[in-house]
Amino acid sequence: MTTDTLAAPAAAKPATTTKLTGLTNSNTNALTGLTGWQVTKTTATYSGSPTAALEAVQKHMDQVRATEGGRATGYQSLIAVRNKLRECSTGASHPAVTVTVKRAKKTATKTRTGSPKARLTRKRQDTYTTAQLVAALETAWTAIRAQHPEIPAVVIIVGSGTASKQAKYGHFAPIRWQHGDNQLAEVLISGEGLKRPVEEVFTTLLHEATHSLAHAREIKDTSRQGRWHNQKFADLASELGLDTTKDPKIGWSLCTLRAETATTYKAVLAELKAALIAYRHPEAQGGGETKKNNNNAIPCACQCPRRIRVAKAVLELGDITCGVCDTHFEPDE
Questions:
Q1: CB neighbours of 132 closer than 8 A, spacing ≥ 6?
Q2: pTM, to two decimals
Q3: 3-state SS of 163-180?
Q4: Which is more confident, 139 or 79?
Protein backbone atom coordinates (compact mmCIF):
# COMPACT_ATOMS: atom_id res chain seq x y z
CA MET A 1 0.00 0.00 0.00
CA THR A 2 1.36 3.39 -0.96
CA THR A 3 0.48 6.90 0.13
CA ASP A 4 0.94 9.75 -2.30
CA THR A 5 1.68 13.28 -1.16
CA LEU A 6 0.54 16.34 -3.07
CA ALA A 7 2.02 19.78 -3.07
CA ALA A 8 -0.41 22.48 -2.00
CA PRO A 9 -3.30 22.47 -4.53
CA ALA A 10 -4.65 25.65 -6.04
CA ALA A 11 -6.82 27.49 -3.54
CA ALA A 12 -10.48 28.12 -4.21
CA LYS A 13 -11.40 31.34 -5.94
CA PRO A 14 -11.14 34.20 -3.43
CA ALA A 15 -14.35 35.85 -2.26
CA THR A 16 -15.24 39.22 -3.81
CA THR A 17 -17.08 42.22 -2.37
CA THR A 18 -18.36 45.24 -4.26
CA LYS A 19 -18.47 48.55 -2.39
CA LEU A 20 -20.37 51.64 -3.55
CA THR A 21 -19.50 54.95 -1.86
CA GLY A 22 -20.88 58.44 -2.36
CA LEU A 23 -24.52 57.28 -2.43
CA THR A 24 -27.50 59.42 -1.47
CA ASN A 25 -29.85 58.62 1.42
CA SER A 26 -32.48 57.58 -1.13
CA ASN A 27 -30.04 55.11 -2.71
CA THR A 28 -29.06 53.50 0.59
CA ASN A 29 -32.68 53.39 1.82
CA ALA A 30 -33.65 51.52 -1.36
CA LEU A 31 -30.92 48.91 -0.73
CA THR A 32 -31.65 48.45 2.99
CA GLY A 33 -32.88 44.96 3.74
CA LEU A 34 -31.81 43.38 0.43
CA THR A 35 -30.06 40.04 0.78
CA GLY A 36 -26.29 40.34 0.42
CA TRP A 37 -26.17 44.11 0.96
CA GLN A 38 -24.76 45.92 4.01
CA VAL A 39 -25.71 49.59 4.11
CA THR A 40 -24.53 52.66 6.04
CA LYS A 41 -25.29 56.34 5.42
CA THR A 42 -23.56 56.82 2.07
CA THR A 43 -22.04 53.39 1.53
CA ALA A 44 -23.38 50.05 0.35
CA THR A 45 -21.35 46.84 0.22
CA TYR A 46 -22.39 43.68 -1.61
CA SER A 47 -20.92 40.23 -0.91
CA GLY A 48 -20.09 39.38 -4.50
CA SER A 49 -18.88 40.72 -7.83
CA PRO A 50 -20.29 43.84 -9.55
CA THR A 51 -22.13 41.57 -11.99
CA ALA A 52 -23.74 39.63 -9.13
CA ALA A 53 -24.62 42.91 -7.37
CA LEU A 54 -26.27 44.17 -10.56
CA GLU A 55 -28.24 40.93 -10.92
CA ALA A 56 -29.46 41.12 -7.30
CA VAL A 57 -30.67 44.71 -7.71
CA GLN A 58 -32.35 43.92 -11.06
CA LYS A 59 -34.12 40.89 -9.55
CA HIS A 60 -35.46 43.01 -6.69
CA MET A 61 -36.60 45.70 -9.16
CA ASP A 62 -38.49 43.09 -11.18
CA GLN A 63 -40.27 41.91 -8.01
CA VAL A 64 -41.16 45.47 -6.94
CA ARG A 65 -42.45 46.37 -10.38
CA ALA A 66 -44.53 43.19 -10.61
CA THR A 67 -46.16 43.69 -7.20
CA GLU A 68 -46.25 47.47 -6.69
CA GLY A 69 -45.58 49.01 -10.09
CA GLY A 70 -42.98 51.46 -11.37
CA ARG A 71 -44.17 54.25 -9.06
CA ALA A 72 -43.45 52.32 -5.86
CA THR A 73 -41.48 54.09 -3.13
CA GLY A 74 -37.76 53.72 -3.72
CA TYR A 75 -38.10 52.28 -7.23
CA GLN A 76 -36.46 55.29 -8.90
CA SER A 77 -33.58 55.07 -6.44
CA LEU A 78 -33.14 51.39 -7.35
CA ILE A 79 -32.94 52.42 -11.00
CA ALA A 80 -30.14 54.87 -10.11
CA VAL A 81 -28.19 52.19 -8.23
CA ARG A 82 -28.68 49.70 -11.06
CA ASN A 83 -27.39 52.22 -13.61
CA LYS A 84 -24.28 52.90 -11.51
CA LEU A 85 -23.55 49.18 -11.27
CA ARG A 86 -24.19 48.79 -14.99
CA GLU A 87 -21.66 51.56 -15.71
CA CYS A 88 -19.18 49.74 -13.50
CA SER A 89 -19.69 46.43 -15.34
CA THR A 90 -18.99 48.09 -18.70
CA GLY A 91 -15.80 49.77 -17.49
CA ALA A 92 -17.27 53.27 -17.28
CA SER A 93 -17.10 55.48 -14.20
CA HIS A 94 -19.78 57.51 -12.45
CA PRO A 95 -18.77 61.04 -11.34
CA ALA A 96 -20.44 60.82 -7.94
CA VAL A 97 -19.88 57.19 -7.04
CA THR A 98 -16.74 55.23 -6.28
CA VAL A 99 -16.76 51.46 -6.83
CA THR A 100 -14.25 49.27 -5.02
CA VAL A 101 -13.85 45.56 -5.70
CA LYS A 102 -12.04 43.67 -2.95
CA ARG A 103 -10.87 40.08 -3.14
CA ALA A 104 -10.09 38.05 -0.04
CA LYS A 105 -6.50 36.91 0.43
CA LYS A 106 -5.73 33.30 -0.43
CA THR A 107 -5.13 31.10 2.57
CA ALA A 108 -2.27 28.63 2.68
CA THR A 109 -3.24 25.01 2.30
CA LYS A 110 -1.62 22.06 4.01
CA THR A 111 -0.06 19.12 2.25
CA ARG A 112 -2.64 16.35 1.95
CA THR A 113 -2.26 12.60 1.67
CA GLY A 114 -4.50 9.85 0.46
CA SER A 115 -5.83 8.53 -2.82
CA PRO A 116 -6.86 10.99 -5.58
CA LYS A 117 -10.52 9.93 -5.30
CA ALA A 118 -10.54 11.00 -1.65
CA ARG A 119 -9.59 14.52 -2.75
CA LEU A 120 -12.23 15.00 -5.46
CA THR A 121 -14.28 18.20 -5.32
CA ARG A 122 -16.98 19.65 -7.54
CA LYS A 123 -14.35 21.16 -9.85
CA ARG A 124 -11.93 18.23 -9.58
CA GLN A 125 -14.01 15.20 -10.41
CA ASP A 126 -13.41 12.06 -12.42
CA THR A 127 -16.43 12.51 -14.74
CA TYR A 128 -17.61 15.45 -16.87
CA THR A 129 -20.87 17.31 -16.15
CA THR A 130 -22.47 20.27 -17.92
CA ALA A 131 -23.02 22.24 -14.70
CA GLN A 132 -20.11 24.62 -15.26
CA LEU A 133 -20.98 25.02 -18.95
CA VAL A 134 -24.65 25.87 -18.39
CA ALA A 135 -23.71 28.24 -15.55
CA ALA A 136 -21.26 30.05 -17.86
CA LEU A 137 -23.90 30.31 -20.61
CA GLU A 138 -26.45 31.67 -18.13
CA THR A 139 -23.91 34.20 -16.86
CA ALA A 140 -23.27 35.28 -20.45
CA TRP A 141 -27.02 35.70 -21.09
CA THR A 142 -27.34 37.79 -17.91
CA ALA A 143 -24.49 40.01 -19.13
CA ILE A 144 -26.24 40.46 -22.49
CA ARG A 145 -29.47 41.42 -20.71
CA ALA A 146 -27.56 43.94 -18.59
CA GLN A 147 -26.48 45.66 -21.81
CA HIS A 148 -29.90 45.27 -23.48
CA PRO A 149 -32.70 45.22 -20.85
CA GLU A 150 -35.45 44.44 -23.41
CA ILE A 151 -34.06 40.93 -23.90
CA PRO A 152 -36.16 38.52 -21.80
CA ALA A 153 -35.07 35.85 -19.35
CA VAL A 154 -34.88 32.39 -20.96
CA VAL A 155 -34.17 28.77 -20.15
CA ILE A 156 -30.80 27.78 -21.65
CA ILE A 157 -30.25 24.14 -22.60
CA VAL A 158 -27.42 22.25 -24.30
CA GLY A 159 -28.47 19.55 -26.76
CA SER A 160 -28.16 18.09 -30.23
CA GLY A 161 -27.83 20.35 -33.24
CA THR A 162 -27.70 17.52 -35.77
CA ALA A 163 -30.80 15.48 -34.93
CA SER A 164 -32.37 16.59 -38.23
CA LYS A 165 -30.90 17.03 -41.72
CA GLN A 166 -30.55 20.78 -41.16
CA ALA A 167 -27.69 21.11 -38.67
CA LYS A 168 -27.80 24.14 -36.38
CA TYR A 169 -25.67 25.81 -33.73
CA GLY A 170 -28.65 27.03 -31.71
CA HIS A 171 -32.29 28.05 -31.71
CA PHE A 172 -34.70 30.42 -29.97
CA ALA A 173 -38.14 29.02 -29.14
CA PRO A 174 -40.71 31.33 -27.49
CA ILE A 175 -43.05 30.14 -24.69
CA ARG A 176 -41.45 26.67 -24.56
CA TRP A 177 -41.20 26.56 -20.72
CA GLN A 178 -43.69 27.22 -17.92
CA HIS A 179 -42.49 28.61 -14.55
CA GLY A 180 -45.42 29.20 -12.22
CA ASP A 181 -47.64 31.73 -13.98
CA ASN A 182 -44.84 32.80 -16.33
CA GLN A 183 -44.00 31.44 -19.76
CA LEU A 184 -40.30 31.41 -20.67
CA ALA A 185 -38.56 31.07 -24.00
CA GLU A 186 -35.91 28.45 -24.67
CA VAL A 187 -32.42 29.00 -26.07
CA LEU A 188 -30.63 25.89 -27.31
CA ILE A 189 -26.85 25.84 -27.74
CA SER A 190 -25.84 22.77 -29.71
CA GLY A 191 -23.24 20.48 -28.18
CA GLU A 192 -21.66 19.97 -31.61
CA GLY A 193 -20.97 23.72 -31.86
CA LEU A 194 -18.98 23.78 -28.61
CA LYS A 195 -15.93 22.61 -30.55
CA ARG A 196 -15.65 26.13 -32.04
CA PRO A 197 -13.66 29.06 -30.56
CA VAL A 198 -15.34 30.82 -27.64
CA GLU A 199 -16.01 33.94 -29.74
CA GLU A 200 -18.09 31.88 -32.18
CA VAL A 201 -20.06 30.19 -29.39
CA PHE A 202 -20.79 33.60 -27.86
CA THR A 203 -21.81 34.87 -31.32
CA THR A 204 -24.41 32.08 -31.45
CA LEU A 205 -25.71 33.24 -28.07
CA LEU A 206 -25.98 36.82 -29.38
CA HIS A 207 -27.65 35.50 -32.55
CA GLU A 208 -30.38 33.85 -30.45
CA ALA A 209 -30.58 36.99 -28.29
CA THR A 210 -31.36 38.89 -31.49
CA HIS A 211 -34.32 36.58 -32.15
CA SER A 212 -35.48 37.08 -28.54
CA LEU A 213 -35.30 40.87 -28.95
CA ALA A 214 -37.33 40.64 -32.17
CA HIS A 215 -39.92 38.53 -30.33
CA ALA A 216 -40.07 41.04 -27.45
CA ARG A 217 -40.63 43.91 -29.90
CA GLU A 218 -43.06 41.85 -32.00
CA ILE A 219 -40.87 42.18 -35.10
CA LYS A 220 -41.02 39.50 -37.80
CA ASP A 221 -37.32 38.87 -38.42
CA THR A 222 -37.52 35.59 -40.36
CA SER A 223 -39.61 33.87 -43.03
CA ARG A 224 -39.64 30.61 -45.03
CA GLN A 225 -40.31 28.56 -41.91
CA GLY A 226 -37.65 30.48 -39.98
CA ARG A 227 -34.80 29.80 -42.42
CA TRP A 228 -34.63 33.22 -44.12
CA HIS A 229 -33.27 36.03 -41.92
CA ASN A 230 -34.43 39.40 -43.23
CA GLN A 231 -33.05 42.94 -43.03
CA LYS A 232 -34.88 43.55 -39.73
CA PHE A 233 -32.87 40.72 -38.19
CA ALA A 234 -29.67 42.28 -39.53
CA ASP A 235 -30.58 45.64 -37.96
CA LEU A 236 -31.29 44.08 -34.56
CA ALA A 237 -28.10 41.99 -34.71
CA SER A 238 -26.13 45.18 -35.38
CA GLU A 239 -27.76 46.74 -32.32
CA LEU A 240 -26.40 43.85 -30.23
CA GLY A 241 -22.86 44.22 -31.59
CA LEU A 242 -22.80 41.76 -34.48
CA ASP A 243 -21.90 42.19 -38.15
CA THR A 244 -24.05 40.21 -40.59
CA THR A 245 -23.37 38.80 -44.05
CA LYS A 246 -26.10 37.97 -46.57
CA ASP A 247 -26.30 34.38 -47.77
CA PRO A 248 -28.39 33.59 -50.88
CA LYS A 249 -30.15 30.70 -49.12
CA ILE A 250 -30.67 31.90 -45.54
CA GLY A 251 -30.45 35.70 -45.75
CA TRP A 252 -28.66 37.75 -43.08
CA SER A 253 -28.18 34.79 -40.75
CA LEU A 254 -24.37 34.66 -40.80
CA CYS A 255 -22.98 36.73 -37.92
CA THR A 256 -19.53 37.74 -36.68
CA LEU A 257 -18.55 39.35 -33.39
CA ARG A 258 -17.23 42.90 -33.57
CA ALA A 259 -13.92 43.65 -31.85
CA GLU A 260 -15.50 46.29 -29.61
CA THR A 261 -18.26 43.84 -28.63
CA ALA A 262 -15.65 41.26 -27.63
CA THR A 263 -13.99 43.93 -25.49
CA THR A 264 -17.29 44.76 -23.77
CA TYR A 265 -17.80 41.10 -22.85
CA LYS A 266 -14.13 40.30 -22.17
CA ALA A 267 -14.73 38.85 -18.69
CA VAL A 268 -17.73 36.85 -19.89
CA LEU A 269 -15.72 35.35 -22.76
CA ALA A 270 -12.94 34.34 -20.36
CA GLU A 271 -15.39 32.50 -18.07
CA LEU A 272 -17.14 30.84 -21.00
CA LYS A 273 -13.82 29.73 -22.52
CA ALA A 274 -12.88 27.97 -19.27
CA ALA A 275 -16.15 26.00 -19.47
CA LEU A 276 -15.69 24.84 -23.08
CA ILE A 277 -13.84 21.64 -22.24
CA ALA A 278 -16.09 19.13 -24.05
CA TYR A 279 -18.22 18.94 -27.16
CA ARG A 280 -20.78 16.58 -28.70
CA HIS A 281 -20.27 14.33 -31.72
CA PRO A 282 -22.79 14.74 -34.57
CA GLU A 283 -25.70 12.34 -34.89
CA ALA A 284 -25.02 9.34 -37.14
CA GLN A 285 -26.77 9.89 -40.46
CA GLY A 286 -28.06 7.02 -42.63
CA GLY A 287 -27.21 3.37 -42.02
CA GLY A 288 -30.81 2.24 -41.75
CA GLU A 289 -33.92 1.77 -43.82
CA THR A 290 -35.84 4.93 -44.58
CA LYS A 291 -39.58 5.06 -44.92
CA LYS A 292 -40.80 5.69 -48.41
CA ASN A 293 -42.89 8.79 -48.81
CA ASN A 294 -45.67 7.78 -51.15
CA ASN A 295 -47.63 11.03 -50.98
CA ASN A 296 -44.78 13.56 -51.36
CA ALA A 297 -45.77 15.18 -48.05
CA ILE A 298 -43.07 16.94 -46.04
CA PRO A 299 -42.95 16.37 -42.24
CA CYS A 300 -42.84 19.73 -40.43
CA ALA A 301 -42.52 20.75 -36.78
CA CYS A 302 -43.05 23.97 -34.85
CA GLN A 303 -41.34 24.95 -31.58
CA CYS A 304 -43.96 23.21 -29.32
CA PRO A 305 -43.11 20.84 -31.00
CA ARG A 306 -46.26 19.76 -32.83
CA ARG A 307 -45.82 17.87 -36.10
CA ILE A 308 -47.76 17.88 -39.36
CA ARG A 309 -47.21 16.64 -42.90
CA VAL A 310 -47.72 19.12 -45.73
CA ALA A 311 -47.47 18.80 -49.49
CA LYS A 312 -44.45 20.65 -50.88
CA ALA A 313 -46.62 22.82 -53.13
CA VAL A 314 -48.79 23.88 -50.18
CA LEU A 315 -45.73 24.66 -48.02
CA GLU A 316 -44.28 26.86 -50.74
CA LEU A 317 -47.42 29.02 -50.80
CA GLY A 318 -46.43 30.68 -47.49
CA ASP A 319 -45.79 30.28 -43.77
CA ILE A 320 -47.95 27.91 -41.72
CA THR A 321 -48.16 29.17 -38.13
CA CYS A 322 -48.87 27.12 -35.00
CA GLY A 323 -51.68 28.57 -32.92
CA VAL A 324 -50.11 27.30 -29.67
CA CYS A 325 -46.53 28.59 -29.78
CA ASP A 326 -47.01 31.22 -32.53
CA THR A 327 -44.01 29.92 -34.52
CA HIS A 328 -43.86 28.62 -38.08
CA PHE A 329 -43.83 24.95 -39.00
CA GLU A 330 -40.42 24.07 -40.48
CA PRO A 331 -39.38 20.97 -42.44
CA ASP A 332 -38.20 18.29 -40.02
CA GLU A 333 -37.01 15.53 -42.31
A1: 123, 274, 275
A2: 0.53
A3: CCCCCCCEEEEEEEEEEC
A4: 139
